[in-house]
Amino acid sequence: MAEPEDGHLNVDAVLKIAHLARIGLTREQAAAFSGQISSILVHFKQLAEADIPTGTNTVGAMGPEDLLRADEVKPSMTRDEFLALVPKSQGAFVVVPAVMQQSEH
Amino acid sequence: MAHPPLTLARATELLRTRQASSVELTKQCLARVHAAEPNLGAFLSITEEHALKQARAADERIARGDNVGPLTGVPYAVKDCLNTVGLRTTCASKILRDYVSPYDATVIRKLNAAGAVMVGKLNMDEFGMGSSCENSGYFPCKNPWDHGRVPGGSSGGSGAAVAADLVPYTLGEDTGGSIRMPAAFCGVVGLKSTYGRVSRNGLLALSSSFDSIGPMAWTVEDVAQVTRVIAGRDPLDSTSLDAPVPDYAAQFTGADLKGVRLGMPKEYFTEGMQPGVAKALLAAIDNLKGLGATVQDVSLPHTKYAMPVYYTVQFAEASANLARYDGVRFRTAAEADDLLNLYLRTRADGFGPEVKRRILLGTYVLSVGHYDAYYLKAQQVRELMRQDFDKAFESCDALITPVAPTTAFKFGEKSADPLAMYLSDIYVTAVNPSGVPGLSVPCGFADGLPVGMQLIGPRLGEPTLFRIGHAYQQSTDWHLRRPNSETTA
């Protein structure tokens, strides 16, 4: 991803990220985000100064154990309850616009 | 104020002695809510019909003497990030404006089982992203102590609703200070519980390795009572801890803290704190010493990285969690001819600027080429922060720090500069990456605005935090003061 060495994220880079994140942005909106995001990322660069001992793990707050449960069939929401939560439905189906023939950008 | 303040303990007593019915208390709270709103901005929805139905059921239960507990018949309100079946749950976001919960969050089911009465759902920063409640997608919430100032965030409505005496307690959710900050700014008590102590089934997730649910109220005792009801293992949340839930209040020792060892992390007592905040905090530490606690200096050497560690991981997890709001589900969709544009437009229209900013940052730190420098590094430093806490708790029972470097700030003071807003979280963000609990307790006033102290404990250290906080409240009266009022409890 395009990023000049000073850590500044330019408008094109912001638009590229926005596309990956599936958020529509105008060029003007991207320009506003560009300065804000750059200043935050520059501040976060101080993480590079941290002295990390070899073998430091990244397991998070819960520790390293896997959390598994039995794979059992249990009652769940009904189809009608699910369909009540979607913007558009028809019969037993969720309706979405065509997936094929979409523009790339 | 014409009405006496209503704490949970007081409400329980009124119901137990039949001086008031649940319906009467509920109507009283609803009247207070209607009088305060929409000016205060704490409530996103008022669930009057639902509340009165629950109150009538609670009265019948009390009349039968059927399993009556401290929460039975007592009104409360909840941050609007918890699912409540048949009612709107918006996370203060326009993208969820039409979403009606299909089920109750586990904490709501537990409160229902206890006979609690929910009067409404509370304002917040959109999806919990903010420290001031200015990022609500609907309207900002004001601080009851000064309507020109923010209540803190993101659980701003939860803090303001208690401080304005609208309900005896509320539930909030804390991802990086979101209960403790509004508790401090609004002059009430708030608990960020140990990660896994309270089930998050039914919570609309912001950052799954940080999010913790907890209560807010005027007293530590009330917060402890609510925690006892909502805590515990839940098969529907694999991260919930299988540890017994103690009777916290039974471990209170009055105003006696003999044998309690407190640590003052030197990294938290540096320049940059508002003088009145520092003064209140040091006076609180003297008070705790007077109750018998010993205080020693400790070091949490990786504190300077807490802010970038917290935000880097939070941005990453938020960008993943919020991918589900895509226009296909949750009832809100933009008009579009193809699927890609459905995603782009729904999210462009539905998310506010702070949410977009964080999703963009999260997508960036997880992207190829930047993952190692930001996300992986943050997770490694997070582990070092966790070790800092473990080491400190070898010689201390709890740590004492400020909650925020300042008292509540004015609307607009930080909202134009996201980085300045993030820096206001400097004392609260280390707690969540480490999974430990934090309790915010009112400890004085600076320039007429409340100041909070933060007590941090080891994992599952809630009993110690409650004991210290309760002892402190036995010897101080900060929690008895009310906004614009001479009223005391």
Task: State the main characteristics.
heterodimer; A: 105 residues; mainly alpha; Histone, subunit A; flat; B: alpha/beta; Amidase signature (AS) enzymes; 37% helix; 13% strand; globular
Report on this model:
The complex is a heterodimer of chains A (105) and B (489). Helix content of chain A is 31%, strand content 4%. Chain A has 105 residues and is mainly α. Chain A has a domain at 1-49: Histone, subunit A (Orthogonal Bundle), CATH 1.10.20. The radius of gyration of chain A is 22 Å and the shape is flat. Chain B is of the alpha/beta class and 489 residues long. Chain B has 15 helices and 11 strands. Chain B has helices spanning 8-16, 22-36, 48-64, 106-113, 156-163, 180-186, 220-230, 275-290, 306-321, 339-350, 353-365, 371-395, 418-423, 431-434, 462-474, and strands at residues 43-46, 75-79, 117-122, 169-174, 189-192, 212-217, 261-265, 294-298, 398-402, 438-446, 449-456. Chain B has an 11-stranded mixed beta sheet with strand order 1-3-2-4-6-5-10-11-9-7-8. Chain B starts with 7 loop residues before the first helix and ends in a 15-residue tail after the last helix. The model of chain B has no long low-confidence stretch (mean pLDDT 95). The interface between A and B is large, with 51 and 72 residues.
**Which homologous superfamily in CATH is the superfamily of chain B?**
Amidase signature (AS) domain
Under the CATH scheme, the architecture of the domain at 1-49 in chain A is Orthogonal Bundle
Summing up helix and strand content along with how strands pair, one would put the structural category of chain B as alpha/beta
* Domain module count of chain B: 1
Uncertain spans of chain A, ≥5 residues at pLDDT below 50?
none
Number of E-state strands of chain A? 2
The Rg value of chain A, from CA coordinates, equals 22 Å
